[in-house]
Design brief:
5 helices
């Protein structure tokens, strides 16, 4: 285990995952109810969308609120999970089933997700951090290469 991972205790990660699960469910409910007027910004700045995807293991439809970065006619999603040691479940779902529905406000768009290469990530990272500077800290906090997904309309 590296020094970075030693700084984040397993107990802290477990508490973080419980909080994220609760936050995601309540945020999704409020976002749907208000069309994103409530729950549509993270920390008052970063735009949030709802991503509906098929679960890798369950085969059930899952909806997760995520910070998104508009990019061209699509969006960028960052699988940071706050710099935790493992990728978020939603990332594994997207890798297994790349067809998703993205809701911004009341508008829904069918999209296809793909993980960008490390070279593409290097080019996109300044754009990503301009929207939410916390992503830099999340990457510094973990040894894993935080995946970046580019989602484009189908």
């Amino acid at each position: 285990m590296s020094k970075k991972q030693q700084d984040i205790s397993p107990v802290s990660e477990k508490i973080g995952k419980v909080f994220l699960r609760w936050y995601s469910k309540s945020n999704t409910f409020l976002y749907r109810l208000t069309g994103g007027r409530v729950g549509g910004k993270f920390m008052g700045k970063a735009p949030v969308c709802l991503v509906t995807m098929l679960g890798k293991k369950s085969g059930q439809w899952r909806t997760t609120p995520l910070i998104h970065i508009p990019h061209g006619d699509g969006i960028i999603l960052v699988a940071s999970q706050g710099g935790m040691s493992k990728n978020p479940i939603w990332y594994n779902n997207l890798v297994a089933h790349d067809e998703i529905t993205v809701t911004v406000g009341y508008s829904k768009t069918k999209m296809k997700a793909r993980q960008v290469s490390d070279e593409e990530k290097t080019d996109l990272w300044p754009i990503i951090c301009a929207v939410h500077p916390g992503f830099d800290g999340y990457q510094e906090r973990t040894d894993r290469n935080i995946p970046v997904m580019l989602c484009t309309p189908v």
